[in-house]
Amino acid sequence: MVITGILGCLSAVSSYGETWDTLPPPAAVSSVKNQQYMLGLVVNEFDQGAIVPVVFRNGHYLLRAADLQSAGIPSSKISGELVDITSLPQVKAKYDSAGQRMVLTVPSEWLPAQNFSGGREAIRFPGRTSRGVLLNYDLYASRADNRGTRYSAWNEFRLFGDSGQFISNGVWQQQLGNEPSYQDDGYIRYDTYWTYQNEDDVLSWRLGDLVTDSLGWSSSVRLGGIQFGRDFSLRPDLVTYPLPVFAGQAAVPSTVDLFVNGYRNSSNSVQPGPYSLNNMPFVNGAGNAVIVTTDAVGRQVTTTLPFYVSSDLLKPGLSDYSFAAGSIRQNYGINNFDYGPAAASGSLRYGVTDWLTLETHAEGAESLALGGGGAQMRIGSLGVINGSLAQSRMYADTGTQYGWGYQYNQRWFTVGTQHTLRTSTYADLGLYGSRQGNNRNSRYTLSRRSAQYNASVNLDRFGSLGAAFIDITGGLGDRTRLWNLSWSKNIWGSSSLYVSASRDQQQGDWAGAISVIIPFGKHYSTSLSTERNQQGGTAQRAWVSRSMPSDGGLAWDASWAHQSVGSDYRQGSLNWRNRKIDTSVGFYGDSDNTTQWADLSGSLLLMDGAVFAANQVNDAFVLVKTGYPDVTVRYENQSMGKTDSKGYLLVPGISSYYPAKYGIDTLDLPADMIAPEVEKRFAVKRQSGYLLDFPIEPLRAASVILHDQQGQPLPVSTQIYRRGQATEYVGWDGLSWMENLTADNQIVAVTPDGRRCETRLVIADGQPKGLSTYGPLTCNLPSLPGASATAAPSDLSSGNRR
């Protein structure tokens, strides 16, 4: 009957010209009230790859609610365990009998949202540190015709480890001869402090000498005390400012390409439903994003969206804050321990939305209170405006500060302005500190008004043009207004031309300069320039130099200037650097007064019980230890040199919290030595060092020949089991490669046909010789296969099988 019904259906198709897609299930089964089919499920032309039961009942299709939810249809649109999809509003259902599929078309907004980040969530590499001591030094000597001879020695001492970093720096200086000293002799301490970083909470602590954090409309002061706050530099994997997210909907499976400023940034395969693209590159300023959607048959839809990105804003819900309290540091760089009255300062920024960031700042002392607030606001794709208002009270005087500005930046054009207006009685901690102790009657005051304007234009092949205007009115009413204009252009190859001019509005005079910079080869360059100052004097300068190679060597520079007023000016220096020290000598001056100088700088490190010399370490470093000499060490795939006779190599100049790749070249090792690990990627904590161990061990592996009692090689693919080792195999001629050999090695062999035997390899001197061949060893195999020996002995196969 079923066959007859199907033939009847075929005849109907032939007679009336209908297609399979317009027909219900075969007539023989359509008459059944509850006939179930196993069909493929397709939603908005996307094949889910699932086979689901479909019930055909009186011209209606019923599917299980769980199957519909798995296909992405929200539970709010369906009810019950069995859903009649033909009765759902906005849903079209079609039975594809040829493909045995149930094809559904639903509103695209019903389907699950898809998020394409493009790997934006960077992998976090926590900072590492080891215990150690570092001493940076800089020894400087100079002799001037009219000042005599002077020596100075700058130093920075660091003690670092898991508990943080203790740092102290200062300079010792001494004047020799009978010439008067223009600086105090002796030792001047600059800063001494302990600091600690908590990367999980993105917090940094500092105890001792510090500089308070500030906002764009507040100022910083030096304190001796404690400070803590957010420190986003600890987490390079975090993006703190909002980036645009582009969203859309796909009715059918499509490909979505994102172009940013004319360059394709990503291409994503999108299934039906809403999607969002948050794989925006880290740009800053205005731009255009073009989204091109292409469906399966090649139809394209192009959408252009302008955007503006500003790193001055914070992501919604993200906060940035800093708080400091202590005693005001006075006469910094003159007196070692001159601390004044107690003071405190705090700042907070909070991202309210992706276009608004609020700011607040407060500071105070015994006779000073200051507080204020501000905001950074993005106005669409037109840039960012900022504003602030602060009030202060020092002693009995109350003052107010207003601030506002605007910034716009794009690929071809930038413009910005910033204004500050203060009443004469406005004061902050900087002014308060200057009027303490012996400076109580100081006439130092804050500026009354300041205005800055700047603009630049990229003229493409015609170079770039910049302009700036500064207008400042001092606390005593003195006013300074300066104009600056500049133009630069690449003229040929890497050569460049630079022209600048400036004007003082008060004096009404112009000053300007024209210079040409011409590089020669990889390290050499020269510059020619002519200048005119505001007094009408002119000068022509010539300069030539050889830059320092990245791996050290010799560098030098020399310049000469012919001046219309005074004698000619001459200058020259010679610099030589290797992996341990950086030294230079030079002179400068004219025929009336010449100064000769010499400098020697570097660092000494104590780590892993040894002392190392290196160039100055400004931030972090890595000490690579192999225990083997002459092994090439690579940093980000670049050779940094070879390990010394004790197997150490110092890699200075590392940026803290940057996840760099370090490796060693095993081609430098003899054939009988092996390195279990040859590459690592990690980050180092700020102002710290890390001991990176790449152990190199003798190769404890050899070839072992195994024979049976008749002297014949064990069969190919015989499995070898040794205690704690991975399974090994016998190759041709009974030869087996065995690793991690010891003085006494018990061996169990199991042949492919299930026979089992045991033997032992004893190495006389107890030290296996790499790349040697031992044997043949006799392993007595039984004459008949033993079924009980097909499994590996549990006491000898604790290692992972291959």
From TrEMBL:
GO terms for biological process: pilus assembly. It is a multi-pass membrane protein. Keywords: Cell outer membrane, Fimbrium biogenesis, Membrane, Transmembrane, Transport. One of its GO terms (cellular component) is cell outer membrane. It is found in: Cell outer membrane. GO terms for molecular function: fimbrial usher porin activity. Its main location: membrane. Belongs to the fimbrial export usher family. PANTHER family: OUTER MEMBRANE USHER PROTEIN (PTHR30451), SLR0019 PROTEIN (PTHR30451:SF5). This is Fimbrial assembly protein.
